[in-house]
Amino acid sequence: MTLPARWTGDHVKAIDAVAVASAPLLGSSDVVHVAPDLCVWDAWPLQDESGDPHHIEAGRQLWMALGAPWFADPDERHGHARIHLLLRDGATWRDLGPAMPDDFSPGSREWSGSAVVAADGVTATLYFTATGRRGETHISFEQRIFSASATLDKSDHMPRLRDWRDLKEIVTRDPAHYMTTSGGEGEVGKIKAFRDPAFFRDPIGGESYLLFAGSRAGSHSAYNGIVGIARQDPGPDARWHILPPVISADTLNNELERPHIIFHGDLYYLFWSTQRHVFEPTGPVGPTGLYAMVSDSLLGGWTPVNGSGLVFANPDAAPAQAYSWFVLPDLSVTSFVDDWAGDGPRNFGGTFAPFVHLWLAGDKAGIVR
Length: 369
Prior knowledge:
This protein is mainly beta. The chain has a single domain (5-367), classed as Tachylectin-2, Chain A (5 Propeller). Helices cover 1% and strands 46% of the residues. The protein contains 1 helix and 23 strands. The protein is globular. Belongs to the glycosyl hydrolase 68 family. This is Glycoside hydrolase 68 family protein.
């Protein structure tokens, strides 16, 4: 069994030894809401199996994002999250409502995932996190990984996903490696993880994988974040089998969120997002930012990019301005506006941040200026 690659305090200490790349500071003109009654955060495109966004027609794509009504306390949105379908038309976004029908999802909330269109251009599969249980009277933080299928309908000017079906739990927890999420506390930053499934089709071997955020079983630390992985069997059954984790931040960091892989320059790059407040507070502590490891093998050999893992951080003037970065194969990166540098004590954006663009060169990475 291959041991997970370790992301350690020594790696995070290396951040101080180099000039930290940071994203541009956002201003009020960058905070453009998708809809007046909807805030959105974690987002992903409907992708082809290659990982590229699926184009409905020139300049138009379907995306998904977590959405909820506006609350005085932005953290309340997590307890009301639904996956919304969005139309991206050039630089504009349009909310098409919840992606799945009411009472279809098995959870009390829907958390992050990914979505893929099959080679037929019609069959779409959504991989997502069902959090809690539908109908529960007391909100819980149990997380389960499900898939569901739908038909991509392009017959009119407004594309839709119709005929939702085949809802099933596809990745079940291996207690030898992955901590349970049942019965955990719900404080933001301390929730244990079994969530955020991200699809990846390996261009070398052709196998399909799901990356996901997890928490290490048997850890003596409250800061036990890991990146988990599952592989799909070939053939008609196409069952998913959970594998041991590929990256461990045990004793360092509680949440390696929304992990995902792209293949670039004959190398695999595994990205995740994390925040300053989920590092073990006695240190070392890294900034809120996009992090990554690189390898020439998907299931092992991972080493932190830039020697530290940090690809780029939020700017010092707004250390929480954006979050939940998702890297596309063309190296463009989406995220959402979190606490930007506005006039109030907290300025939650609840919308898409401007895309940024990465450069990757072997074990080095940064943001294009």
